[in-house]
TrEMBL record:
Keywords: Acyltransferase, Membrane, Transferase, Transmembrane, Transmembrane helix. It holds the Pfam family Acyl_transf_3. Residues 7-335 form the Acyltransferase domain. This is Acyltransferase. The chain crosses the membrane at residues 12-30, 36-58, 78-99, 132-152, 159-180, 195-216, 228-246, 252-271, 283-302, 322-340. One of its GO terms (cellular component) is membrane. The keyword Amino-acid biosynthesis does not apply. One of its GO terms (biological process) is polysaccharide biosynthetic process. The lineage of its organism: Bacteria, Pseudomonadati, Pseudomonadota, Alphaproteobacteria, Sphingomonadales. One of its GO terms (molecular function) is acyltransferase activity, transferring groups other than amino-acyl groups.
Length: 371
């Protein structure tokens, strides 16, 4: 597959991580306006999920017919996530425990994160590695992906667009069922960024949207890029998400991930249209996207510590906060990018190579001893 045709996926990841960094960065300012500007960045998580589902589908098709494909899929996914995430566990434990804020670092919570079951344990879900809830949701998606993609892809080949519409309908029913079921059970709406919002079932529709987008737009011809249409629909979708977040519309948080997933598809298609037209071909955003996982794990250390100290020097002076906001954000991104290059070289790439070596070893035919 030509690299340029797929660079839109790295650009998706680049935009996603910039949005996620922005939301946590903006939390450090006293200015309510800066906080509001950054708040919408939380939908970068759903952009990540759509990109993840798309690339997993692409990889599954490229490796179709591989011996022990499901086993190898789990090996690759584990070594893709675990080494850097384990570094995050150690680093954040050291930071918070040394600062006297380590009450959540119990043996149970740490082990839940080590074994990636923290996505179903409220006390462990987001308390060991900041933002770790997304990894919990992602790992549960990995768990079901081989069977899920097999079912969706097979039904699509047999029934075409009607099958994809049915799967989207199922995903929407799951989202609405969780949204209204929680309301009926507790008498409360799902709150933003709380455990019921972060669990896999609340995000399932986003992953399904990514799978359907891959089959409809990449393997099929149901959503050819149209830059004006895609740009307007992406802007409208993210605008709706921004309104929900900024206006704090409690009755809609349960379906906010679905809104963000749909908007992410049109943004992806807009970026795909640019790639097809030769409007990209690398560049800084693709570079950021390639190290986006490292940036996700590392960025809290920078924006919640050194950057926060700098921001607090200007706290209370709105004009000064506005003057430093953009330059300091750019500095943060540059520093994180180079830190990400280091972890990519010394952690992520060796781990991926180790996964390939393990798969080769397991696939090597066993010698039959001579009788």
């Amino acid at each position: 597959m030509p690299v340029q045709k797929l660079d839109f996926v790295d650009r998706m990841r680049g935009l996603a991580i910039l949005a996620v960094i922005a939301v946590h960065y903006a939390q450090m300012f006293a200015s309510p306006t800066l906080k509001i500007i950054g708040a919408t960045g939380q939908v970068g998580v759903q952009l990540f999920f759509v990109a993840s589902a798309f690339t997993l589908c692409l990889s599954a098709d490229q490796r179709a017919g591989e011996a022990h494909g499901v086993r190898n899929f789990y090996i690759r996914r584990y070594f893709r996530i675990a080494p850097l995430y384990y570094l995050g566990i150690v680093a954040y434990a050291a930071l918070y425990i040394s600062a006297g804020k380590g009450s959540s670092y119990t043996a149970g919570n740490i082990l839940a994160n080590v074994f990636f079951v923290h996505g179903v344990i409220p006390s462990a879900n987001n308390s060991i590695v900041p933002g770790g809830w997304t990894i919990g949701a992602e790992m549960l998606f990995y768990l079901i992906f081989p069977a899920l993609y097999w079912a969706v892809e097979r039904s699509w080949r047999r029934f075409g667009g009607a099958a994809l519409a049915a799967w989207l309908g199922l995903a929407l029913l799951v989202a609405l069922g969780w949204h209204f079921g929680y309301r009926l059970e507790t008498g409360r709406w799902i709150a933003n960024n709380q455990f019921p919002y972060t669990v896999f079932i609340a995000q399932f529709s986003v992953f399904m949207i990514g799978i359907v987008y891959y089959l409809a737009a990449w393997r099929g011809d149901m959503l050819a890029p149209h830059r004006l249409r895609d740009g307007l629909l992406a802007a409208a979708g993210f605008g709706l998400c921004s309104w929900v977040i900024v206006a704090d519309v409690h009755p809609l948080y349960g379906v906010l991930p679905t809104f963000a997933g749909i908007a992410s598809v049109f943004l992806a298609n807009w970026l795909r249209g640019q790639s097809a037209a030769g409007a990209s071909g690398g560049g800084w955003l693709v570079g950021i996207g390639k190290v986006s996982f490292s940036l996700y794990v590392l960025h809290f250390m920078l924006v919640w510590q050194p950057s926060a100290w700098v921001i607090h020097w200007f706290e209370g002076d709105v004009m000064d906060e506005w003057l430093i906001a953009l330059p300091l954000f750019v500095i943060d991104v540059v520093l994180l990018y180079w830190a990400g290059r280091i972890t990519l070289r010394y952690i992520e790439t060796p781990a991926n190579n180790l996964a390939r070596a393990l798969i080769r070893r397991l696939d090597k035919p066993k010698e039959i001893p001579a009788s």
